[in-house]
């Protein structure tokens, strides 16, 4: 089965070149230029991976990534953008992007990144199928249900994002043991770049906030090393 790419780009000339180049390499490509049409095409095309330009008419790539994450939490997403500010890159990762390519880019780079992200996604899926329990994991006064992306507490249910679930799964798999920061970055984001490292800090802060009602649970930062989820 060929890899199906949902490619969102509003520059007709660039879009035509990229689409034809990808198709010449054996990919099946659905190109969309209007942000309003993306989710409809996503549902009907059922892509393997999404490549999203950020600056789009009517609905930008950030918003589209969030919509896609709601429909399919584990969908691989690559952002394409002319933006160069660190804040823009961080926002891309925070809304659910897996990778970020700045324009102008070479087709070789795009294809390698697509193949690499698909490989990492397949590896994570295989690892999750082998190790993720179907039952809830008890954490103090909480119940963590990784297969349902949920954290329960006293009858309240918090829906977790795909990345929050991945990160919490790693911490619970190593409960009361140190997890190397680099290992987390490689497993969840695929590389240990500065931008991903900053993004990890955001997610750790978020998880700490989720467990704030239980003093027996603590996510400890071991500076220069990693994290210890103490229970």
List the helices and strands and how they pair.
Layout: E1 4-8, H1 12-24, E2 28-32, H2 38-45, E3 49-53, H3 61-71, E4 77-81, H4 86-94, E5 99-102, H5 107-131, E6 137-139, E7 142-145, E8 150-153, E9 156-159, H6 162-173, E10 178-180, H7 181-188, H8 194-210, E11 218-222, E12 226-230
Parallel strand pairs: 1-2, 1-3, 3-4, 4-5
Antiparallel strand pairs: 6-7, 7-8, 8-9, 10-12, 11-12
Helix pairs in contact: 4-8
Describe this structure in words.
It is a single chain. The chain is of the alpha/beta class and 231 residues long. The chain contains eight helices and twelve strands. The chain has helices at 12-24, 38-45, 61-71, 86-94, 107-131, 162-173, 181-188, 194-210; strands at residues 4-8, 28-32, 49-53, 77-81, 99-102, 137-139, 142-145, 150-153, 156-159, 178-180, 218-222, 226-230. Strands 2-1-3-4-5 form a five-stranded parallel sheet, with helices on both faces. Strands 6-7-8-9 form a four-stranded antiparallel sheet, with no helix packed on it. Strand 8 and strand 9 (156-159) form a beta hairpin. The radius of gyration is 19 Å and the shape is elongated.
Q: What is this structure, in a nutshell?
A:
The chain has 231 residues and is α/β, with parallel strands linked by helices.
Can you count the beta strands? 12
What's the overall geometry? elongated
Computed CA radius of gyration, to the nearest angstrom: 19 Å
Give the proportion of residues in helices. 40-55%
Low-confidence stretches at least 5 residues in length (pLDDT < 50)?
Answer: none
Structural class: alpha/beta
For the largest beta-sheet, the strand count, sense and barrel status come to: 5 strands, parallel
Report the total helices.
8
Order of helices and strands: EHEHEHEHEHEEEEHEHHEE
Mean pLDDT: 88
In terms of DSSP E residues, the strand content is 15-25%
């Amino acid at each position: 089965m060929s890899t199906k790419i949902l490619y969102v780009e509003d520059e007709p000339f660039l879009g035509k070149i990229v689409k034809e180049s990808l198709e010449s390499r054996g990919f099946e490509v659905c190109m969309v230029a209007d942000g309003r049409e993306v989710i409809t095409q996503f549902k009907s095309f059922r892509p393997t991976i999404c490549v999203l330009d950020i600056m789009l008419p009517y609905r930008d790539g950030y918003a589209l990534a969030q919509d896609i994450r709601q429909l399919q939490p584990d969908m691989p997403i690559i952002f394409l953008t002319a933006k160069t500010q660190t804040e823009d890159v961080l926002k891309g990762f925070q809304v659910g992007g897996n990778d970020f390519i700045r324009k102008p880019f070479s087709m070789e780079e795009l294809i390698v990144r697509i193949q690499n992200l698909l490989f990492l996604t397949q590896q994570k899926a295989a690892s999750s199928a082998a190790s993720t329990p179907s039952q809830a994991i008890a954490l103090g006064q909480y119940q963590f249900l990784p297969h349902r992306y949920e954290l329960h507490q006293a009858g309240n249910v918090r829906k977790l994002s795909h990345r929050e679930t991945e990160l919490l799964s790693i911490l619970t798999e190593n409960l009361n043991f140190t997890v190397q920061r680099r290992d987390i970055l490689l497993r969840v984001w695929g590389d240990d770049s500065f931008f991903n490292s900053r993004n990890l800090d955001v997610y750790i802060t978020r998880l700490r906030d989720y467990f704030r009602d239980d003093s027996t649970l603590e996510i400890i930062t071991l500076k220069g090393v990693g994290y210890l989820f103490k229970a």
